[in-house]
Description:
The protein is α/β, with parallel strands linked by helices.
Amino acid sequence: MPGYTVSEKIIKSHLVSGTLERGSDIALRIDQTLTQDATGTMAYLEFESMGIPRVKTELSVAYIDHNTLQNGFMNADDHQYIRTCAKKYGLKFSRPGNGICHQVHLERFGAPGKTLIGSDSHTPTGGGLGMLAFGAGGLDVAVAMGGGAYHITMPQIYKVELVGALSPWVSAKDVILEVLKRLTVKGGVGKIIEYCGEGVKSLSVPERGTIANMGAETGASTSIFPSDVRTLEFLRAQGREEAFVPLEPDPDAVYDGCTVIDLSTVRPAAACPNSPDNVHSVEEIGNIKIDQVCIGSCTNSSLSDLLKVAAILKGKTVAEGVSLSIAPGSKQVYNMLAECGALADLIDSGARILESACGPCIGMGQSPQSGGVSLRTFNRNFTGRSGTADASVYLVSPETAAISAVNGCLTDPRTIGKMPRFELPERFHINDNMITDPAEESESGDIEVRRGPNIKPFPQGSPLADRIECKCILKVGDNITTDHIMPAGAKILPYRSNIPYLSRFCFEVCDKDFPSRAAECGGGIIVGGENYGQGSSREHAALVPLYLGVKAVIAKSFARIHRANLINAGILPLTFVNADDYDKISLYDTLCINDVRSAVLNGENLRISTPEGDIKIVCRVSERDKKILFAGGLLAYTVSERPGGEK
Length: 647
Ligand code: MIC
Ligand code: SF4
């Protein structure tokens, strides 16, 4: 018997059903969950509709970090809804201003060897601490909060061996950009990326967090690092050494694939518009003129990131014509920057300091000027995500961002002399006063959940039909993101609990007429290319199409979380048996699919006749997913599975 990888060790100790055989269906016991507010309102509405009085996990935390711009009553109402849900149902609540969920979770709650799912695609940040952490749709998180297992296909385990050490001015962001360059935005699909090798030791937990965080952009199920002395060092500095357990792969562990990165050869890099895998070295891109720089997000807003930025900006002024904004990742980071005077250096340079929240990363303000060039330390640069459709967004490290802000053009940080170094503090500033505890179970009956008028009923799927006849109401290309399907941004995000309103903006980025076409045709089928639904975990990208009458999506391939969200909503995810058949379908074609139920049940091909010839499609899903589709979605299935529920 070969030894085990770190991922396999955690999976083995959490298996509720299944085996480690790659590609098989597994169910995992979930120790911790997290939600953020943009997906949280829906997740708690779904949790409530399951009728479970109290969460059953070891720890569940509700964060407020996305919808913090209170431009109207909607976001503030949703904050109160989530706060009172947390109080009543047994969750910790991280108040607005306390920080970005992934940064705070790493600091205060993450623990090696534990499983975590979160209603946000960057939940794998916890992999920096040796956790097995997955992004998931809100409904999957609601089920886990209720004590249900998390069902996935057993991924392949892909080894990234790090050797050597980073050169001055090159940082963790440049490493994950190198991984993205090699793997692309779909190379991680069906895989867990496991980091190992000598080079791992040179990376602190926040640096590992940066790498695990942006592994999401490869489409990977998650990313994970071992738990070692650096992990212990971080947990001790957070006053949580009791959470430490060592976790290393066995020397004879077997991986399904491998790439080696010599850290000493990694160069400062940028992901160019409009995809995180469009990676080139800063040197290669050249000194392009910039209009904006944004520093922060769950990828790059740790204390050491911002101390480096402060050291670069100290005594300098942000270039004329450039706007620099900085959002520290957490209250802890903010506080420590203030305590050591680094905050004063940032302010003095002309940086616009924002609250600890996602902010510009999700288009909550700071949209660039028309046609502007924006450098961001974030993880996604999809078209329109910044709020300005024709802006060019480049994703870079904090070092590159800071020096470029001073110079007014993209600048290789290696050109500016000696690099400041920062070790982790021996003790972080610990004050959890913005994390509130739930009410005692005996008192929870007295807590009233506050619901604002913006909360509207959400759509529910119908049991799978045996015959689908409808029009192709949208045909899109490869790598369609959930930001295309259901855009975010300050104007729309406050309506995350109002699906009818959101539906007006569905596919706005690529086809403004989609909602009206869907209404005119009485719903229909969407046709997509490779990697359909990459990006975020927002289940709104499935619920809104469901509301607009979408019955099925036929694609060349799907991104993992979005595919799960479609199934959870009761929308059929179909793939072309021959990818070339994609060309045979045109907008407005009537697509007729017969004998759907038996074909889904038996995993058989389905046929669509078109004037261009027959097309073979197939719905390859797990046995459980079949039951979910037959029931009309995960909610209906979960209720029917309960003792006394309808079978
Ligand atoms: C994102 O970065 O796209 C988000 C906003 O954090 C999403 C969640 C959402 O849409 O609310 C994610 O990554 O899952
Ligand atoms: Fe927030 Fe941006 Fe991270 Fe999403 S990617 S959780 S919006 S900081």
